[in-house]
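quick q for whoever's on today - can somebody do inverse folding on this one?? i tried earlier but teh output was garbage lol. tokens:
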């Protein structure tokens, strides 16, 4: 087997460095989250169902169904602002006058707990940008806050995309941009 020859196009589309994470990207209330540590990880996971039949040898082309798909954007954030901390606590109440976050109500999670979207914007070697967007995003995992000697608090945010049963829209996208989307 010979060596694989790269093209200039292959090289130019190498994604470099960390990305910038933005909540409500493209909206009037968009906010850049940061600083982060360890970059950002976008994961789209389809649910594939195989149709089984007698004599089947394994996965069979044309006999698979995509039943669903989940998407997430994972980051580790260092900034401990009240706004950032509240992102990790669905249904929490934020009192801006007292700068206090309190446990929210049980029951149905309010629409206001879902962000319109969360995006990670990355740069390519050719100077273009890749924008990965998770729609109707909300963190559902644990909230942790750790104070330790000679270290910084890191809290994990895993924004999951959520389908809207009223619109049945798509919950993620990957876009190319020739211009800096934050300029």
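ok took a stab at it. sequence:
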């Amino acid at each position: 087997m010979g060596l694989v020859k790269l093209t200039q196009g292959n090289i130019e589309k190498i994604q470099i460095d960390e990305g910038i994470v933005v909540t409500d990207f493209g909206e009037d209330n968009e906010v850049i989250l940061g600083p982060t540590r360890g970059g950002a990880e976008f994961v789209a996971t389809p649910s594939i169902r195989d149709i089984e039949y007698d004599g089947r040898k394994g996965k069979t082309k044309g006999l698979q169904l995509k039943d669903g798909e989940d998407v997430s954007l994972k980051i580790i954030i260092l900034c401990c602002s009240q706004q950032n901390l509240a992102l990790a606590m669905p249904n929490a109440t934020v009192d801006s006058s007292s700068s206090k976050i309190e446990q929210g109500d049980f029951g149905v999670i309010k629409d206001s707990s879902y962000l319109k979207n969360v995006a990670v914007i990355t740069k390519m070697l050719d100077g273009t940008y890749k924008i990965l967007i998770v729609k109707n995003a909300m963190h559902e995992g644990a909230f942790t806050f750790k104070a330790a000697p000679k270290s910084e608090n890191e809290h994990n945010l895993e924004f999951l995309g959520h389908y809207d049963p009223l619109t049945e829209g798509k919950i993620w996208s990957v876009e190319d941009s020739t211009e800096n989307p934050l300029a």
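fwiw The chain has a mean pLDDT of 93. also Residues 38 and 76 are 7 Å apart (CA to CA). so keep that in mind when u check it
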